[in-house]
Amino acid sequence: MARLTAIGGVLCGGLMVTQAAMATEPATSPPAARSSVLAASGTGSGLVEELGSSRTAGSWIADDGRPVVAVTDEEAAAEVKQAGARAKMVEYSGEDLRSATEALRSAPRVSGTSWAIDPASNEVVVRADSTVSAKDWKKLTDLAEEIGGSVRMERTEGAYTMRLNGAQPIFGTGGRCSIGFNVTDGENEFMLTAGHCGPAGSVWFADNQGQQEIGRTIESNFPGGDFSLVQYLQDAPSNSSNVVSVGDGRGVRITSVGAAAVGQRVFRSGSTSGFRNGEVTGLDATVNYPEGTVSGLIETTVCAEPGDSGGPLFSEGVALGVTSGGNGDCSQGGTTFFQPLTEALEELDVQLTGLPQAAQPTASAGAADAGSQGAAAPGTVQPGAVESVEGSGAFSDILDRLADPRNVGPGLLVIAGSMVALAATRFIRTEQDRAAYRRQYSQSWS
């Protein structure tokens, strides 16, 4: 009877393991409908484009999720309100702010500086890191005074660097970078990453021993921009569905491509610091790295560290850019800049893999979506639909779940206990048989 009970326990434990594995299949959220935050971004940028840079000075997303457009006249303000957005009267137009950035760009280059247009404050914010000398800082300050009140000067801690780690090469011989997005020209498959990771002809590996080659850079833009195209080898694994890894075997499915907006909550993933989030603080930013100047970047409060270069920037499943560089780290915080994805895709003449044509770049799409202004605050925005990225196919998924002790632990404990009980009953039965034999043997000689 004890043996039958132990065998029953083994069978019961096996059923528990199987049921746990099947019941814990990662839930995959379907692609969400266009959120109110993205709609707000499209509405604001659409109004700026419609009214023109002489009457507006950019747009951003307010804390309550509504789009705000900076305007320079009352008629423009009325049109903005009629479209369902909020208007803010400002002193400087978009043309004035862009003129200020051109004046800064035409001045002698100072490594360790950056500037970006902040539409919320109606200023061009110039920052200088700790490497900028007092002499160069004074020159910049004098230039800002010449330009006028549209420029604000700030000192920042740390140093602007490209997020490349030359000490631990994982992909390229020039250092470690991160894959941004998978793209295609309709015939071949590529990965899109940062341009500073390596020039055309760079060889990329999947391991730090340089044994498993996965592709080669065929086109690179740096300085000026910061993006490059790496063609996969024929037998190299690639992710045609564009699921961005965020750690713990999970990923965010990319469903479309878009442009970032000031005030938007954004997320990024990198091979060094993993999954992080922050807020867009400026657009059309210029950074004077020691290696060269890059313009047209997205400025954010997201942290990054060496090795994160090229990693993806996204929000709510919408691809926005790839990591360029910045200052600080993920312990103290800092500023990180990203190459806008729409511009890179257009110049390289490629599109994200696994997306329908309608989901490809839409820089100002949604300008007509003024009716969908049900405000969702940027702080409540999620990265997108999260799903499993480990394994391929149902069989691999089941194996992954079977290997997870959190799923199958109770069943395994039942099996282990039953096996111990089975071994114990076997041992007891054997000893009983031996005792009976000794008794019978001794009686035959008595």
From TrEMBL:
GO biological process assignments: proteolysis
Signal peptide start and end residues: 1-23
SUPFAM superfamilies: Trypsin-like serine proteases
Entry keywords, A to Z: Disulfide bond, Hydrolase, Membrane, Protease, Serine protease, Signal, Transmembrane, Transmembrane helix, Zymogen
One annotated Gene Ontology cellular component of this protein: extracellular region
Ranges for domain Peptidase S1: 188-343
Region Disordered: start-end pairs: 359-388
Full protein name: Protease
